[in-house]
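User: Hi! I'm working on a homework problem where we have to compare a predicted structure to a textbook description. Could you give me the structure for the chain below?
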Amino acid sequence: MSRVGRLPVAVPSGVEVKVNGSHVKIKGPKGEMEFTFSPKIAIALTDGEIEVTRPSDAREMRSLHGTTRALIQNMVIGVTEGFKKELQLVGVGYRASMAGKNLVLNVGYSHPVEIEPPAGITFEVGDRAQQIFVTGIDKQAVGQISADIRKVRPPEPYKGKGIRYKDEYVRHKAGKAGKVA
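Assistant: Happy to help. Predicted structure tokens:
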């Protein structure tokens, strides 16, 4: 049995869960999320816990089992605590600012790059305009928009300039060797 899939998902107080076959709707203090999972996996709400079971030990069922349970867990965490990603701008003159809800990046191009947040995602600019915080209740959406922001100017390996995640390690390469006389 799946090690992840067999663990029940605890539903904290203040969170409302509705299970209708393979459709799960979760409502909490930060918002509301719903998703329709594969009908092959059974989802049940018992005693304040969500249990995910599979009909057989087939390879497809095993993979769906753990994935379904992990997605439900992420939905519960999202509506209670939310998710947050931090990005850093490294480079002389690189800065971020807010224009209403939109994020404006000045990262060495001839023009500023403006990024509009999708529904449920908010941007925040930290101290000295070198930090960007992406927050939301959907883990996948937070990760995707963070990756899209990083893609505007990925870190380069020679000086390390660009947009990177907070804990990201950028491996530096040596530059050109000078002439030996």
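For your comparison, note the following. The first strand starts at residue 9 and ends at 10. The chain has two domains: 9-80, 83-165. Good luck with the assignment!
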